[in-house]
Design a protein that fits this description.
Elements (H helix, E strand, L loop, with lengths): L3 E5 L3 H12 L3 E5 L7 H8 L5 E2 L3 H4 L7 H10 L2 H10 L4 E3 L4 E4 L5 H13 L3 E3 L3 E6 L2 E6 L2 E5 L3 E4 L15 H7 L4 E7 L3 E2 L4 H7 L3 E9 L2 E9 L3 E3 L1 H17 L2 E6 L6 H9 L7 H9 L3 H10 L8 H9 L1 E5 L1 E2 L7 E6 L16 E3 L13 H23 L1
C-alpha cells in the first residue's frame, strides 16, 4: 500500500526530501506555512545564489565545524558536483566564480525553483501552502490553515523548518519548544554569518556608515582572511566579517569580549611602513603623513583615529604596529533576524544516522534546523540539499522496514 508522508517546511531541504520520496513512489505532501515555497532560497538568489563550492571535497567537507563528521556521509552521497548536475537537470547551468564559489549562470534562484516545483508536481507531490504546523497531536501533526485547523496522521514525517534567521521569510523557529517538550535536545539558535555591533562615536557613524574598507586583511580565531567589509551604522558587516562571525561570537560568550584585528596595509610589512612613516615631514599634518606615508585616507584613516585616539602622537614604529593590527572591539552579534544563517538546532545525539529523531520514531529532520553551521560559500545550501536527501533515504528505508 502507498505510504503517506508529510514533509513540513518547503525550503531547499524539504523540497529535496520530497523529490527523493516521491521518486520512490510514496505519496508525499509538503506543508508550507507561507503562501509560496522557498522564500529564503529566492532571497539567496538576490545575491546570485551561491549554490555550492568547487574546492576539493576533503576541504569542503571540513567546513561544518564539529558537525563535519556527522554531515560527511550526506555530503559524500550528494557532493558539490552532484549539486551542479542536479541544477543542470532542472535547466540551471552553473559556473565557478573567481573565488571558487559556484553560481547559476542566471545569477538567480527563481528559474531553478520554478522548474523544481513543476517537477515535484509532475512526480505527484502535493504542495500545500498556508499550512502552518502548530504542534503535535495524538499520533499526528496539527496545522493551522485559512480554512481552519487540520490534523494529519501520516505514516512518517520529515521536518525541514529551517533555522531562525530572516523569520519574516517563514523560518521562525517556533518549533523549538515543541520538540524540547518531547525531550529532544536543541542547542540554542544563535546568529551565524552575521554582522556585529561596535560602539562607534556619533561623528564616525554619521560620516562613514555604509563605507567599504577595501583591500584589508582581517584576523580572528577563525584565521587570516583578505577582502573588504563595510562600516554600518551599528558596527561592521559584509562577507569578510561573516567569515569571522562564529569565532567572534563564541569568544564573546567565552570571554565577554572580542575584537576583529584589521591590517589596513596588508601589502607592506610593519618595518617598511614604519620607515615610510618616518620619512614624512614631522611638521606636516597627521592626515598628510598618513596619506603619504601609509596610503591611508578616507574611511581607513578615520577608522584608525576612531580606534586609536592618540595615533597622531605616536612614533612611526608604534603607529605602524597599530595600522597593521587595528583592533575593532565588537560588542555583540547583530540580531539573529538579520543573520544569513543560524547556528544551533537539533542535537546530533538525538538523531540517528538516518536522520530520525531517536525519541520520536517515524519523525525525521533535515536542513538548517539541525545543529551545524558553516561559512558562506555555498556550504549552507549544499548541506541543506544533502541532508534533505539523506533524511529522505533514511525515512524510505525506515518505512520499508515496518
Ligand atoms: C540573505 C540570505 C542569503 C543567503 N545566501 C546564500 C547563498 O548564497 N548560499 C547558500 O548556500 N546559502 C545562502 N543562504 C542560506 C540558505 O538560504 C539557508 O541555509 C537555506 O535556505 C536553509 O534551507 P532549509 O530548507 O533548511 O530552511 P529554509 O530555507 O528556511 O526553509 C524552511 C521552510 O519551512 C517553513 N516553515 C517554518 N516553520 C514552519 C511551520 N511551523 N509550518 C510550516 N512551514 C514552516 C518556512 O516558511 C520555510 O519555507 C542565505 C540566507 C540568507 C538569509
Amino acid at each position: 500500500m502507498t505510504k503517506q508522508i508529510a514533509i513540513i517546511g518547503g525550503g531547499p531541504a524539504g523540497l529535496m526530501a520530497a523529490e527523493v520520496l516521491s521518486a520512490a513512489g510514496h505519496a508525499v505532501t509538503v506543508y508550507e506555512a507561507m503562501p509560496t515555497f522557498g522564500r529564503k532560497f529566492l532571497l539567496a538568489g538576490k545575491s546570485g545564489l551561491n549554490i555550492t563550492h568547487s574546492e576539493d571535497f576533503s576541504s569542503f567537507a571540513e567546513r561544518f565545524g564539529n558537525a563535519s563528521p556527522r554531515l560527511r556521509p550526506a555530503l559524500e552521497a550528494f557532493t558539490p558536483d552532484d549539486v551542479r548536475a542536479w541544477a543542470a537537470g532542472l535547466g540551471t547551468e552553473t559556473f565557478v566564480g573567481t573565488s571558487g564559489r559556484v553560481f547559476p549562470k542566471a545569477m538567480k534562484a527563481s528559474p531553478l525553483l520554478r522548474a523544481w516545483l513543476r517537477r515535484l508536481e509532475a512526480q505527484g507531490v502535493t504542495l500545500s501552502t498556508r499550512h502552518r504546523w502548530v504542534g503535535f497531536a495524538e499520533n499526528g501533526y496539527r496545522f493551522e490553515t485559512p480554512e481552519g485547523p487540520v490534523t494529519v496522521r501520516p505514516d512518517a514525517a520529515l521536518l525541514a523548518l529551517g533555522g531562525a534567521s530572516w523569520p519574516r521569510l517563514g523560518s521562525d523557529a517556533a518549533w523549538v519548544p515543541w520538540l524540547r517538550d518531547k525531550g529532544i535536545v536543541i542547542a540554542d539558535l544563535r546568529p551565524a554569518n552575521c554582522g556585529f555591533d561596535v560602539a562607534w562615536s556619533e561623528a564616525f557613524r554619521e560620516r562613514f556608515a555604509g563605507e567599504p574598507l577595501k583591500s584589508v586583511s582581517t584576523t580572528s580565531g577563525a584565521g587570516i582572511f583578505p577582502g573588504e567589509f563595510v562600516v554600518s551604522k551599528h558596527g561592521i558587516e559584509g562577507s569578510l566579517v561573516y567569515a569571522h562571525s562564529a569565532a567572534l561570537r563564541d569568544r564573546l560568550v567565552a570571554e565577554g569580549r572580542a575584537a576583529l584585528t584589521v591590517d589596513l596595509t596588508p601589502g607592506r610589512t610593519a618595518e617598511r611602513l614604519a620607515r615610510d612613516l618616518a620619512r614624512q615631514d614631522a611638521k606636516a599634518s597627521f592626515s598628510n603623513r598618513l596619506r603619504k606615508g601609509a596610503g591611508l585616507e578616507g574611511v581607513k584613516a578615520a577608522l584608525l583615529r576612531e580606534l586609536v585616539p592618540d595615533a597622531s602622537r605616536m612614533a612611526p614604529q608604534e603607529l605602524a604596529e597599530q595600522i597593521k593590527a587595528l583592533q575593532i572591539p565588537v560588542l555583540r552579534p547583530r540580531p539573529i533576524a538579520e543573520a544569513i544563517s543560524s547556528a544551533g538546532g537539533i542535537a546530533w545525539s538525538d538523531l540517528d544516522e538516518n536522520y530520525m529523531l531517536k525519541p520520536l520514531t517515524g519523525l525525521f529532520a533535515a536542513g538548517e534546523m539541525l545543529d551545524w553551521e558553516a561559512p558562506t560559500g555555498g556550504y549552507l545550501l549544499t548541506a541543506c540539499l544533502a541532508t534533505g536527501r539523506s533524511a529522505a533515504h533514511g525515512l524510505g528505508a525506515w518505512l520499508d522496514s515496518q
